[in-house]
Design brief:
Largest sheet of chain B: none
Number of helices of chain A: 9
Structural class of chain B: mainly alpha
Helix content of chain A: 25-40%
Chains: A alpha+beta (334), B mainly alpha (276), C mainly alpha (290)
Oligomer: heterotrimer
CATH topology of the largest domain in chain B: MetI-like fold
Helix content of chain B: over 70%
Radius of gyration of chain B: 23 Å
Shape of chain B: globular
Strand order of the largest sheet of chain A: 6-7-8-3-9-10
Distance between the termini of chain B: 19 Å
Structural class of chain A: alpha+beta
CATH class of the largest domain in chain A: Alpha Beta
Number of helices of chain B: 14
Order of helices and strands of chain A: EEEHEEEHHHEHEHEEHHEHEEEEEEEE
Number of strands of chain B: 0
Strand content of chain B: under 5%
Strand content of chain A: 25-35%
CATH superfamily of the largest domain in chain A: P-loop containing nucleotide triphosphate hydrolases
CATH architecture of the largest domain in chain A: 3-Layer(aba) Sandwich
CATH class of the largest domain in chain B: Mainly Alpha
Number of strands of chain A: 19
Number of domains of chain B: 2
CATH superfamily of the largest domain in chain B: MetI-like
Chain lengths: 334, 276, 290
């Protein structure tokens, strides 16, 4: 079991309210990602669940039991830290065995479980090394190994990939996703990277300034963002926003259209503009188009072979079905 | 500053540094040399440096006259005992200050250090009288207690500065791994802080070994450590240079030897953890 | 921010240290204050009498008190000046590359390990003795009259001895600090046209400020209560020429058995030390956060 329920949980540091009272339900076996810009309170929320911070008010239930006042050591949760937090004076073997040793398991049992975890994580040949002799990715795996040996109720990940280089990050992302599929244990994952959120999550929680902006599956967030913040945060490159006349004509304060939902033509279209910068990624080309009526710059995704360059005149047409409309408060208009 | 050092410049610096180093060390060297001389050679004019008849008789006489080994044993018990006790009290305190800091932490630390500024002489008489009345005067236990208390602020301060370098993440990881506070400190914090704890330990052994106010004033014969042993040579025996040197050599040798064997930790400790 | 649990633990774990030090401070302090208001002589047990502030009056009007006060300040100030300036110079020297750095460093540190009583006796007898000390031999070798250091310049002699013991400490701290100086800063300043003296004044010295503060703080703590060196060399004399406050109070209470007078002196010493302490704590408190 690994069900977590937050009930009107809030957290203040002194006078600063980092988490405004919020409710959240995480079901057993779910992969939930907390995402948001830095300082949005996502890590704090994770630490509240872990018990490393006290809630200022509200209640945390784990598997239906009130855990608000339970110290971290007794919550049966495992955590992977951004810095990995490996014990530098212990070998990999001892690092992974540590939670088992703390739980008072027998030596043989400890070793059996460590070997098993090492096999799963491809760490067998590194078991007798010290953390400092390992690469970043290996350290990451040791941290995960330390978390899985004890069969926790849920895993908590605090930006675990942010210290890895880009290629390794993609790899570890896959490994963690696979791990989730094979273990079927609840995972709560914090990141500021919306790509990680989109690719890994079953449920995304978007946070801003201590408030939950939206909870939903990646595709729900992508296709029906509840407000302008979520719309702008999810998706890459970010959504284009147009205010003023064009928006008013569609009965909104502002409209949003993703770069991949604009069609580009050199002959005709809804909006005219000139190309500022063209970024060629090979698979795609991103064009930054300055609209002729001066209402702003739009990003457009075109094919990889698209030829237009700086100064060329182009016409853009939005896909009306993929157009998002927002009111003056930034809320979605259905 | 390290680039383009000409050999000539390096040679000059080498010469100057060695001359100054030897000059600073000279009193110690001279004492050790003199301890192997006869009394006549010790006051010979002009003094001889190496070309004299080396003898060990001074050491034998010193041991016989003032029972070096008893004082040595007292010094060992008092300095090790007070350091161990100090660490036991200070490690939890330093944990609190380093990892659960409050608005008051800095003040508590400053207050602790300020107790070291109380001139010991200001409280000598009451301590003397209390010790007399409870039978701690001239006992090893009494000195262990006093030296623990006077060095405690420094132990706490040093451990605090070392502990602060340890990432709190790792202690939190231990907590998440189900460690109790005891295990967190014994299995995670202390092994990680071994260099810092070693430095603290060494420095405090030295401070306790050389402490010469309380050890002189609170002991008579039974528990007297080496500071008292050597103070007995202050008059007129002091004029017997060879014996004075032998006694001095015996008193400083243990610490000098320990110092040389643990130079690296000690150098770190000597800075009281305050400078990196 | 720590949780309630860890805060409770923290309070429990810090209390032994705090309570012990509080007891160590308050109990003797209370007794000292009490004794200082009594006429209390160890030679006349059972004759203690309430005398109010008489002890203070006697102590504060004793010319020896002012001598001791001056001597204490000269002693602390002198040693601090020698060790800080000497330490900076020595650290700059030892920071240069040369052959045998490790050995020279050990030689320079060695005096710190030496027991104050040993150091005082060795200096007094084997170096400063006007008849058979090494300095006397050297003076005679140069055709000069040997100088009786402890008789004619007792305080200066003690300052020399104590400086010898503390110079290693200052050097070592300053050397450590010097080695942590970013060499790019120096190179940048060189590019900006700073000569050696300017680099020292505007880059090196400010970088050493924190280390110098530490040296001053720690040394002052130990130097204010110098005792053994005086006890075994001059016994505070001749007259009161080398008596510091610590020694004066010691003499009053344990040599003249005047507990009341000694206690009053102790309280005065504590008050003075506190003034110094407040000043120093300000200084270090500011530097400690950096």
């Amino acid at each position: 079991m690994g069900q977590i329920r937050l009930d009107a949980v809030s957290k203040s540091f002194g006078d600063v309210e980092v988490i405004r009272p919020l409710d959240l339900e995480i079901s057993d076996g779910e992969f939930v990602v907390f995402v948001g810009p830095s300082g949005c309170g996502k890590s704090t929320l994770l630490r509240l669940i872990a018990g490393l911070e006290d809630v200022t008010s509200g209640r945390i239930e784990i598997d239906g039991v009130d855990a608000t006042a339970v110290p971290p050591a007794k919550r049966r949760l495992a955590m992977v830290f951004q810095s990995y937090a490996l014990y530098p004076h212990m070998s990999v073997r001892k690092n992974i065995a540590f939670p088992l040793r703390m739980a008072g398991l027998g030596k043989d049992e400890q070793m059996r479980k460590v070997e098993e975890a090492a096999r799963v994580l491809n760490l067998t040949e590194y078991l007798d090394r010290r953390p400092r002799q390992l690469s970043g990715g290996q350290r990451q795996r040791v941290a995960i190994g330390r978390a899985i040996v004890r069969d926790p109720t849920a895993f908590l990940f605090d930006e675990p990939l942010s210290n890895l280089d880009a290629a390794l990050r993609v790899n570890m992302r896959l490994e963690i996703s696979e791990l989730h599929q094979s273990l079927e244990t609840t995972m709560v994952y914090v990141t500021h990277d919306q790509v990680e959120a989109m690719t890994m999550a079953e449920k995304i929680v978007v946070l801003q300034e201590g408030v939950i902006e939206q909870v939903g599956s990646p595709m729900e967030l992508y296709s029906a963002p509840r407000n302008r913040f979520v719309a702008g945060f999810i998706g890459s490159p970010t959504m284009n926003f147009v205010n003023g006349e064009e928006a008013a004509r569609r009965g909104a304060h502002s409209i949003g259209i993703r770069p991949e939902h604009l069609t580009i033509s050199t002959t005709d279209g809804a909006w005219q503009g000139t190309v500022g910068v063209a970024e060629h990624l090979g698979s795609d080309t991103f064009l930054y188009v300055h609209l002729s009526d001066g209402s702003g710059t739009l990003t457009v995704r075109a094919g990889g072979e698209y030829g237009a360059g700086h100064g060329d005149t182009v016409y853009l047409t939005p896909d009306p079905a993929k157009l998002h409309r927002f009111d003056a408060a930034g809320l979605r208009i259905e | 500053m390290a680039r383009n050092v000409t050999p000539a410049r390096k040679a000059t610096v080498t010469a100057v540094a060695w001359i100054i180093g030897l000059a600073i060390f000279f009193p110690i060297l001279w004492t050790i040399l003199t301890s192997f001389k006869t009394e006549a050679e010790a006051i010979a004019s002009p003094p001889s440096f190496v070309l004299f008849d080396w003898t060990l008789e001074n050491f034998a006489i010193v041991q016989e006259r003032s029972d070096y080994f008893r004082h040595f044993l007292n010094s060992v018990i008092i300095s090790l005992g007070s350091t161990a006790l100090g660490l036991i009290i200070a490690i939890p305190a330093a944990w609190s200050m380093a990892f659960v800091p409050t608005k008051r932490t800095k003040h508590v630390l400053m207050w602790m250090l300020s107790t070291k500024m109380l001139p010991p002489v200001g409280v000598l008489v009451p301590i003397y009288l209390i010790f007399r009345d409870v039978g701690l005067l001239d006992t090893q236990a009494g000195l262990v207690i006093v030296l623990t208390l006077i060095n405690l602020p420094i132990i706490v301060w040093m451990l605090y500065t070392y502990f602060r370098e340890i990432p709190v993440d790792i202690l939190e990881a231990a907590r998440m791994d189900g460690a109790t506070l005891r295990s967190e400190i014994i299995h995670v914090l202390m092994p990680m802080a071994v260099p810092g704890i070693a430095s603290t330990l060494l420095l405090n052994i030295i401070l306790a070994w050389n402490e010469a106010f309380w050890t002189l004033n609170l002991t008579a014969a039974k528990a007297a450590p080496l500071t008292a042993f050597i103070a007995a040579y202050s008059s007129p025996e002091g004029l017997f240079y060879a014996k004075l040197s032998a006694a001095s050599t015996l008193a400083i040798a243990p610490i000098l030897i320990m110092g040389w064997f643990s130079q690296r930790q000690l150098v770190r400790g000597l800075t009281f953890g305050a400078v990196k | 921010m720590p949780t309630q649990h860890s805060r409770v633990h923290a309070r429990l774990m810090i209390s032994p240290a705090v309570l012990l030090l509080l007891g160590w401070m308050l109990i003797p302090l209370g007794l000292t204050v009490y004794f200082s208001l009594l006429r209390y002589n160890l030679l006349m047990p059972g004759m203690e009498q309430w005398t109010g502030l008489t002890n203070y009056r006697f102590f504060l009007t004793d010319p020896a008190f002012f001598d001791a006060l001056r001597n204490t300040l000269v002693l602390v100030g002198g040693v601090l000046a020698i060790t800080v300036i000497g330490g900076v110079l020595l650290a700059l020297l030892l920071d240069q590359p040369f052959w045998g750095r490790g050995i020279v460093r050990v030689l320079v540190i060695a005096p710190f390990f030496i027991m104050p009583t040993v150091s005082a006796l060795v200096w007094k007898n084997m170096f400063m003795n006007p008849v058979s000390g090494l300095f006397a031999h050297a003076a005679k070798g140069l055709g000069l009259e040997p100088f009786d250091f402890l008789a004619h310049a007792p305080l200066f002699s003690i300052i020399l001895m104590v400086s010898w013991q503390w110079l290693p400490f200052a050097t070592l701290i300053l050397l450590t600090a010097l080695q942590s100086l970013d060499s790019e800063q120096l190179e940048a300043s060189e590019m900006d046209g700073a000569n050696y003296w300017n680099r020292f004044l505007f880059i090196v010295l400010p970088h050493l400020a924190r280390a110098i503060t530490v040296v001053i703080l720690i040394q002052t703590i130990f130097l204010l209560s110098i005792f053994a060196e005086i006890l075994v060399t001059t016994n505070g004399g001749p007259g009161t020429a080398s008596t510091n406050l610590t020694f004066l109070i010691y003499a009053q209470s344990l040599l003249h058995f005047d507990v009341g007078g000694g206690a009053a002196g102790g309280i005065i010493a504590i008050i003075l030390a506190n003034i110094v302490a407040i000043f120093l704590m300000r200084m270090i408190g500011k530097n400690l956060d950096a």
